[in-house]
Model the fold of this input.
Amino acid sequence: MEKELVRQNALFHTLMDNLQVGIFMVEAPSGKPLLANNKALELLGRGILPDANRYTLAEVYKAIKEDTGNEYPPDRMPILRGMNGQTSHIDDMIVERPDGSRVSLEVFGTPIFDEKGDVWASLVSFYDISERKKTDLVLREKNKFISKLMETSPIGIATLDREGAITYANKRAEEILHLSKSTITSRAYDTP
Done:
């Protein structure tokens, strides 16, 4: 039995150390960090810090809410929601590392229950979505440009979906057809 326990423990550590997703676990209700795998250490830029607890996790690990630039609200953090028995998911957390670099994270949180059904820990898994965020920004900017170009074009423009439904008409198309945008987009283009 002891040999099997050693094998399972080795398997667990190998798995944790080789996952390409950050794993971080805290004790409930204290919020004391219990576990962080190699990817978590890399993404957070720091390991398990002894002064971290449920009240200081966002501050200690420099968690920032993307849209405000302020410290991440504790009641929205998946690690803290897990301590309250809730499963959650966010994609708007930025972590500032000790070297000043920042990483955008998508975070999934879940409580860990004991045999009585009480929460004894909270676990989060997370990964870097910085490149996805940059790509999203570029796409939004390009879409704004294309929209502006289409709206100000001296040529009437309409777009269709795969089924032939008209999904967009610019101002010039409205003028040429003497129809409102809503009337145009309520129609479909019939092909022979």
In short: The longest strand covers residues 102-113. The two ends are 74 Å apart (CA to CA). The chain has seven helices and eight strands.
